[in-house]
From TrEMBL, chains A, B:
Alphabetical list of HAMAP family matching this protein: MetX_acyltransf
GO cellular component: cytoplasm
Keywords assigned by UniProt, alphabetized: Acyltransferase, Amino-acid biosynthesis, Cytoplasm, Methionine biosynthesis, Transferase
Family to which this protein belongs: Belongs to the AB hydrolase superfamily. MetX family.
EC identifiers of the protein: 2.3.1.31
Binding site for substrate: 234, 363
Function according to Swiss-Prot or TrEMBL: Transfers an acetyl group from acetyl-CoA to L-homoserine, forming acetyl-L-homoserine.
Enzyme category, top tier: transferase
Pathway(s) per entry: Amino-acid biosynthesis; L-methionine biosynthesis via de novo pathway; O-acetyl-L-homoserine from L-homoserine: step 1/1
Subcellular location: Cytoplasm
Limits of the AB hydrolase-1 domain: 55-367
Protein name according to UniProt: Homoserine O-acetyltransferase
Gene3D superfamilies cross-referenced by the UniProt entry: 1.10.1740.110, alpha/beta hydrolase (3.40.50.1820)
Amino acid sequence: MLRPAMSQAVAPFPVVDHQRVVFPDGLALDCGAVVRPLVVAYRTYGTLNADRSNAVLVCHALTGDQYVAETHPVTGRPGWWESVVGPGRPIDTDRFFVVCANVLGGCMGSTGPREEMTDAEGRGLGRPWGTDFPLVTIRDMVRAQKRLVDHLGIARLLCVVGGSMGGMQVLEWAAEYPDAVFAAAPIATAAHHSAQNIAFHEVGRAAIHADPDWAGGRYWETGRVPAQGLSVARMVAHITYLSEQALTRKFGRRLRGASALTFLEDVFEVESYLRHQGSTFVRRFDANSYLTITRAMDYFDLAAEHGGELANAFRGTRTRFFVASFSSDWLFPTSESRALVRALNAAAANVSFVEITSDKGHDAFLLDEPDFHRALGGFLRGAAERVGV
Amino acid sequence: MLRPAMSQAVAPFPVVDHQRVVFPDGLALDCGAVVRPLVVAYRTYGTLNADRSNAVLVCHALTGDQYVAETHPVTGRPGWWESVVGPGRPIDTDRFFVVCANVLGGCMGSTGPREEMTDAEGRGLGRPWGTDFPLVTIRDMVRAQKRLVDHLGIARLLCVVGGSMGGMQVLEWAAEYPDAVFAAAPIATAAHHSAQNIAFHEVGRAAIHADPDWAGGRYWETGRVPAQGLSVARMVAHITYLSEQALTRKFGRRLRGASALTFLEDVFEVESYLRHQGSTFVRRFDANSYLTITRAMDYFDLAAEHGGELANAFRGTRTRFFVASFSSDWLFPTSESRALVRALNAAAANVSFVEITSDKGHDAFLLDEPDFHRALGGFLRGAAERVGV
């Protein structure tokens, strides 16, 4: 019954050479700290046109990264949104210049817990930030992206688009930089994180904290990573990404072996699947980043940032909004999108809303959902025509 | 950021002197093993009448026990169903003789992983069963209860009642011993465990397995219990017991302190609550029992036991059924109760069904729900009148 050891060697710093831009003056965060320098790792797809009017910023979700539409450098698997971003896809890279940045606090090259800690003057301290990395907010993530977008010479984004935590960033973009966002597509998201979502995140964090290999966050000193804790965190999160229908359709109560009445692990197919999800995740994701980013999501409350009234976040906006939810998503249910649409209506914003019928749960925004792809593609083409791209 | 150590001293065997009955011949289990002797710890409330016709068997849920309507000997807290069982309560102990047994595989005195392991002749081996305890099923639990009921001289129970896993036992009683069950009240339950429910259980088991203090299940040798792993298991389970509405009403996004942007733990009240739930649970519950009982629930599939057709489990039954669900229960949703009612109808059984409107989630069956209490009390009084109690 002993679990196989899941410890893995870990280099003190990442070995992948990500494309990055360094801002030596750093970034002042909501919590009062300054990270200096600010490093933003990013990828682009397609070509920026002459008047720089065809840029689409894609914002990634909790465990996503900047490798949207190409083979992932760590896992070797396809990009996480290749069904949506690429030549002839809804976000057509033959027409649009697509940018995606690893979020601040992430673990794929942007400033975050796994990168080298710096002092107030920006000097490297020879060890990772780890849990000394300051608390970041969704707004901080968006501020870092704004620096990148400015660096690329783009005054106005044709569209900012993202699902889940990516959608939170879209909303923050529209609220903070309305003149820089012609169109915004927050998908399968909400204007705040619910008590239930906070609770599920807390379970994941507790599992990481409980892993002795976490070592108070200083696991680079031991050469081991908290693989079991991070794996449990991923397992519970993964359940919330799927619908009950999707789990039942995929696995039902199917057994892995012929004999049911054994006490082996992974008796049911769904268990084996979850364990696989957990164990593959730890190969690509940093536990301290997971703690940092889940906290950022938990803190997100756009209404609270605007005097307690969500509509205030969008007063006077000229941005066009496309809000989409999925009928079986219980993590970010349609009711959250409706609340967002009501606030946008109250702010007299230009908004279209669609609930996509799907039994795939929250994950639907990442999967093959033709109705969603048609709706998003149509919205983007309409925006492009209006701008003259 | 280091979590405080949660290790606790643990005696090799429990110290509470539970009321028990010992069956020296033991019990043959579905898995083929025999546990010998079989010990059933139980409590009774009220008085058995002269013709032994007023007995109500209460079946407890995953983390419940036999202390239904009295102060718990370990926690010192009220019994888990005092709102339902007691003088003048829906299950009126002035009128009925109430019996509740700790389930086989449990940790409150019945044969289970925390009790002393025995050999084939029933001789004690001087150490707990631990993970050598054989796999048990819901049907095995019910067989053990049947031995107790026979021992008490009760040929027919007026009613078998229970919620959640208790409801699974009710269904198994009605299917296995129809002539011994005049009335059956399966509440907030289902005739099988769903893929999503299996998945949540698997997260809990993975968290226990991941705790080094679990020590391959032999934690009595170290004097420590896998408190952190069991606590994480309890936390995730607890989320599933509550509705999103209940969590939001109880906690919303309220912060524990004045300042939001700190990186302390338990920033939100919901986190503090969950951690408290986890840490109090480990004081009263055995991790190996948790593994054993969750597995029993996962395996439960009454239709599969009856040729794949749920109605077959109840063909020819004369038992009266009272099926109840709660509108915001997403762990055992109303759709599962409806499927059960359809099967009972197909078997021409006498069945009444009620969905109680409640925003308290799965936990509602344990809480103050007057409509539920009235319905259950009415059903039981009707059965009693028919029997002439």
